[in-house]
Amino acid sequence: MANDSRDVLSRIDADKETYLEELKDYIRIPSISTDPAYKADVLRAAAFLEGKMREAGLATEQIQTKGHPLVYGEWLGAPGKPTVLFYGHYDVQPADPLELWRNPPFEPTVEGDLLVARGATDDKGQSYTHLKAVAAMLAERGSLPINVKFLVEGEEEAGGEAIDRYVREDGGKRLACDAVMISDTSLYAPGQPSLIYGLKGLCYMEIKVTGPNRDLHSGTFGGAVFNPLNALSEIISKLRDGKTGKILIPGFYDDVRPLEDWERKEFAALPFDEAAYRSELGVPELFGEEGYSTRERTWARPTCDVNGIFGGYMGKGAKTVLPSWGGAKVSMRLVPDQEPKKIAKLFGDYVQSVAPPGVKVEVESLHGADPVVVEVQGPIVDAALDAMQDVWGARPVRIREGGSIPIVSTFASVLGVPVLLLGFGLNDDGLHSPNEKFNISHFFNGIRSVVRLLDRLGNL
After folding, report:
1. Are 389 and 183 in contact (CB under 8 A)?
2. Is there a single domain that holds both residue 398 and residue 443?
3. DSSP 3-state assignment of 356?
4. Both 323 and 452 in a single domain?
5. 156 tagged catalytic
6. N or C, fewer C-beta in 10 Å, the chain?
7. Cβ neighbours, 10 Å, residue 7
8. For the chain, what is the domain count?
9. Whole domain around residue 454: which residue ranges?
10. Could you give the CA distance from residue 456 to residue 451 in angstroms, rounded to a whole number?
């Protein structure tokens, strides 16, 4: 490893406990962006992050939006050198169901090498590596080898509309850079880092089915009216073929970009134990679209899934009721070149067309995100691959990911620079689930990876 990083890496080792305690304090703030009841906590998380940026030596600002603020920081003391824009999000998913957590979700718990808490990996733990790397370099040297900018949002888990609007309106002026780095993804496997070049988009819909003007006695009125939950079940059953896995919405596949031959070959060459994968998930069989492998389906084929169904009686015991209404939330993960608005309209039209008579159906689009494929070649990309190899001992593999990070496509189109999707989590980290975790060793390797990247970019 080059001598020019050893000074900073030694400081990181010396300050490990401080860094970990800071991360715990950050995670303790329940910054749930989707629930208005937590607005004050979201603002508290923004203030915490801005304060840590200022302590590190960055010029900072909270950029006010119609939603939650963006936290901006910069250090531009290396004229003529490259500039990296670091992106992350300080908001988190709701913690429900609370009864499945081993410990309170916002009280970080150390279990061996694991830090267990909501936001540990998505995305507080991962994105905080960026700031601590910069802080360590400035504390040790008083300067950085390149210029850095930070833009951290508080609405990624709620659609990311504010940051999208800001980046498009800014047009790349304040945010001008040579590369964007995002750590909100996973290694391919333990010890095997990855460079993600493709993310799925998202089209998130809600269906509401209304029948009678009030809940009815199922004995007195059963057989006289169409039960809205029965109607909802019929609609949902017609979204996808239960045998082939094909989505049945007319026109849904019209714009899907096929996988390239080289992609299918590289995906197939990656080690993947399907039996172990099935066992870890606790399912008897895997299921998906016919004609594609599990990796191809999760990374590069569109999906349609019900995320929640609600209505009627859901308490303990029995209540013989015909509910007045029922609802479902449905998400579709999209691939290049599908457009969320077009898919939302196709979905809405199809749901109305298959709805049974006797009920009223309303379909609402909650939010969407464009799918994206980013460039994975060039000197900056090579520097990133080298930096990860320095720290993790293995060259990153090129893969796609089934998740969505709404701002990636905006960065790619507006800024016109490489977007480096270099994550430090693992696929079993339980993001969006109870007992979310992040390996503490990965937190520190993430910090080291950023240090190596900045030093390598400084030598370009």
Report:
1. no
2. yes
3. coil
4. no
5. yes
6. N
7. 13
8. 2
9. 3-199+371-458
10. 9
Inside any domain, residue 268? no
Amino acid letter for position 339: E
Residue at a domain's end among 320, 344, 369: 369
State the angle between helix axes of 440-458 and 16-27 in degrees (0 to 180), rounded to the nearest 10: 110
User: Does 184 have pLDDT greater than 90?
Assistant: yes
**Number of alpha carbons in the 13 Å side-chain half-sphere of residue 177:** 31
Residue 8 neighbours by CB under 8 Å, 6+ apart: 133, 136, 137, 140, 141, 451
Give the pLDDT score at 213.
Answer: 96
Are 439 and 426 spatial neighbours (Cβ–Cβ below 8 Å)?
A: yes
Residue pair 195/421 in contact by the 8 Å Cβ criterion: yes
Assess if residue 231 is contained within a domain: yes
What is the spatial distance between Cα 120 and Cα 59, in angstroms, rounded to a whole number? 26
Task: DSSP letter for 98, please.
Answer: G
The answer to whether residue 295 is domain-embedded is: no
226 closest CA partner among 216, 239, 236, 241 = 216
Q: Name the phi and psi angles at 447, rounded to 5.
A: -60, -45
Q: Is residue 239 part of a domain?
A: yes
Burial class from Cβ neighbours inside 10 Å (0-12, 13-18, 19+) for residue 372 reads buried
Instruction: Tell me which of 156, 164, 263, 390 is the catalytic residue.
Output: 156
91 given a catalytic annotation: yes
| 3 band by pLDDT with thresholds 50, 70 and 90 | low
CA distance 206 to 309: 10
Residue in the block written with tokens 């950085």: 144
Catalytic residue among 22, 41, 74, 91: 91
> Do residues 216 and 190 share a domain?
no
Which pLDDT value is given to residue 436?
98
The verdict on 364 and 431 lying in the same domain is no
Categorize the per-residue pLDDT at 205 as very low, low, confident or very high, splitting at 50, 70 and 90: very high
Look at residue 171 and tell me whether its pLDDT is greater than 90.
no
Of 369, 396, 419, the last residue of a domain is: 369
Give backbone dihedrals phi and psi of 190, rounded to 5 degrees, phi first.
Answer: -55, 125
- What CATH number should be reported for the domain holding residue 438? 3.40.630.10
CATH of the domain at 239: 3.30.70.360
Q: State whether 206 and 191 are in the same domain.
A: no
**Are residues 309 and 229 part of one domain?**
yes
Q: Which helix (H) or strand (E) holds 138?
A: helix 124-141
**pTM score, two decimals?**
0.84
97 and 208 assigned to the same domain: no
